[in-house]
Design brief:
By secondary structure, this protein is α/β, with parallel strands linked by helices. 40% of the residues lie in helices and 20% in strands. The radius of gyration is 21 Å and the shape is globular. It starts with a strand and ends with a helix. The chain binds iron/sulfur cluster.
Length: 372
Amino acid sequence: MRTVSLYVHIPFCERRCPYCTFYHVPKTDRAMETRLVEGLIGEFRIAGADLGRQFQIPTVYFGGGTPSLLDHRSFEILIDEISPFLTAGSVEITVESNPEDVNERLMQNLSGIGVNRLSLGIQSMSSRAQNVLKRCTPRSNEQAVRIAKRYFQNISLDLLLGIPGGTARELEESLAAVDRFEPQHVSVYCLEPGGVIPPDTDDFFDRVDMERAADEYLLVCDRLRTRGFGHYEVSNFARSGFESRHNKVYWNGGEYLGIGPSAHSFIEGERYSNVPSIDQYLAEWPMFPRTVRRHEVRGETERRLEEIMLDLRTSVGTPLDRLKCNPRLVDELVDEDLASIVEERLVLTDRGYLVLNEIVHRLSGGPWAASA
Ligand code: SF4
């Protein structure tokens, strides 16, 4: 049976983090949530019909925004709707949660409806850094992890690097907390502009020290590896068997359906993106996919470069065969300690991951691109 993973975008946030470039809106009232859930279900039904209703969903990811702001009844309605399609016995269902929202009731409710993976954006364990990021206190992070561990055996923690004014000591505080919290998975992101909306304050990213962020990244890669985490993707580390199955679908070229404003899909080799506007989404989803979902037209070279880029994000790397028109570049990357060759595949080093975009740019300018 065909498998299609499902991403559900919940765009609500309590307040805006100054570094945020994800599509989100303030949650104004219950009525808006009700309309969003109606839209998500409507979109899922129409997209499901397009797929001939003959598919199974092996992984579900509720991302945002802040999915943990969603009312429990909304979660129940959404899970009820998709449950006939879930792969029996082995589905992975992740919910991103703000540590401030974690309490016994939320954790009990989520685990009660089959959520089996929790992603917590703790970001840092320094009070100063959390203040800069306008996030909760380290104490709230600590309490959230303590409660979450009573209900989930698969917890992922997000850390941010390059926080303005950050110090080596602050990073050590965060890493010591990761040791203490014993999560199964850690995601590490360098603060950088990009995404669908500009940052809150013009100068936030001016204050990010990219050189320090790079040094922090190399240190964190080293530290997490020595603690037994596998570095399986540029930003992701996991204990054996706890790699995110959902995110692996993205990197391995599997099919996924994204529902909700700003969600992305990859179906039958084509990419689609939903409009990043809740107003437009709610007004127009009944006409889906004509206006809400946009087809991203890509040329052959772009597709192949994208495949290589996705490969290079992972610790499995990309087959040398794919790069055979540009062997000199492969040699250069190895000489520069940006990559190594493992079983006929080019695999980036930690230093290579730091300049992944630059490497892809170098590939795109080579003879490979012209003859691909
Ligand atoms: S970073 Fe996350 S929680 Fe903060 S505003 Fe953006 S989407 Fe919301």
